[in-house]
Design goal:
This protein is low in regular secondary structure. It contains five helices and 13 strands.
Length: about 375
């Protein structure tokens, strides 16, 4: 388009009597085209009725391009699907029909996104073909909440997982029950994020003022009927962190492992996320103190005698602690010591849960 206009100007200059006013008019038209994009030029002066009359989409460009109304930055990430933010989330946006906002400045609003966020440069700063970008800070979108990292990403940069909140096993999210489930330290399960938040990623629209979950029912630690807030998949409909947490139910990790008679159907505990720390009686009965303890635990580990310690049959366990390496592993693990040294069990020292009870061959039951 610009080349056509300029050829016309040169042709007219070669002709005698060419009106200077006409030449200037064509040059002005070319400038308008460069400034306001291809949709602004018409044989008749066209009225501007929408932002896209001057700004083509997608908005991002490596350099400022007056012909298309595009410019550098991260506009596409914020304005395109799945987020689809309107210009007014960050900018002073002209009202419909009042499009004369080209004053040589970029005009921001405060706070950003109706939150408490701000942009590091002034509310109004000059346009330039060689911009030095600022950064956003204190926005909910980038972790300004309890447990978030309150990141300040550069406007032309990218924000990967871990920028706005912790997400690795080495550094899991810090709030409530995340460390014990997602951490890789002693006594922590080291679950990946997608075990509870399947399908979530940095570009999936998950920054939407709602916490989504989808449990991985293919993982045996969860089981085929695992739910949170009674649902396999759902959303809180409120910003993180939640004011009130829900409960997990029908999850193998929080079950008895097997029935009270050693059969394959366990009993499940309902455990509130962020609730009190669990103990030996939270998911199954406390074998050291509960009169309803399964099998012959009452006879062996309770009362005045013999009142054996847990470690006599289950190495690494005490009346108040467990051996993480052999806990919640779909097996019953025996390791006899002390008065029970040298003993055997008919099901094997390590056997699958739900395989019914066996019997001991051991010194305690000898002549």
């Amino acid at each position: 388009m610009g080349e056509i206009i300029m050829r016309k100007v040169k042709s007219m200059n070669r002709k005698s009597g060419t009106s200077l006013l006409l030449v200037l008019t064509l040059v002005f038209t070319f400038c308008i085209y460069q400034l306001h994009g291809p949709n602004s030029y018409n044989s008749e002066a066209a009225a501007i009725t929408a932002c896209t009359d001057c700004h083509n989409t997608p908005l991002d460009s490596p350099t400022r391009d007056g012909a298309t109304g595009r410019f550098p930055g991260s506009h596409n990430t914020h304005t395109a699907a799945p987020y689809g933010y309107d210009c007014s989330v960050c900018h002073v946006k002209p009202s419909a029909g009042a499009w004369g906002h080209r004053d040589g400045n970029i005009n921001m609003i405060s706070p950003l996104n109706a939150d408490v966020g701000s942009y590091s440069k002034a509310l109004s700063f000059p346009q330039t073909n060689s911009p030095v970008f600022g950064n956003c800070s204190s926005t909910y979108c980038h972790g300004n909440y309890s447990g978030g990292l309150n990141a300040s990403p550069d406007w032309a940069g990218t924000a990967a997982c871990g920028t706005c909140h912790n997400y690795t096993n080495a550094a899991p999210p810090a709030r409530v029950s995340h460390p014990v489930h997602a951490g890789a330290g002693a006594g922590q399960l080291g679950l990946a994020c997608d075990k509870c938040h399947q399908g979530r990623s940095v570009r999936d629209g998950h920054v939407n003022a709602s916490v989504q979950w989808k449990l991985d029912r293919t993982d045996w630690r969860f089981g085929a009927n695992a739910v949170y807030r009674t649902l396999e998949e759902g959303a809180t409909g409120a910003k993180a962190p939640s004011a009130i947490y829900g409960a997990c139910a029908s999850i193998y990790c929080h079950s008895t492992g097997q029935s009270s008679t050693g059969g394959p159907t366990p009993t499940y505990a309902t455990v509130t996320w962020g609730g009190a720390a669990l103990n030996c009686g939270s998911c199954h009965l406390n074998m050291d103190s509960n009169a309803g303890a399964t099998g012959n635990h009452v006879k062996h580990s309770q009362g005045a005698t013999p009142n054996y310690a847990c470690a006599i049959c289950h190495s690494g366990y005490t009346e108040t602690s467990y051996n993480f390496a052999t806990h919640i592993n779909q097996s019953i693990n025996l390791a006899f010591s002390g008065a029970a040294s040298g003993g055997t069990y008919s099901q094997g020292l390590t056997h699958a849960v739900g395989n019914n009870y066996g019997n001991c061959t051991i010194y305690c039951h000898s002549t």
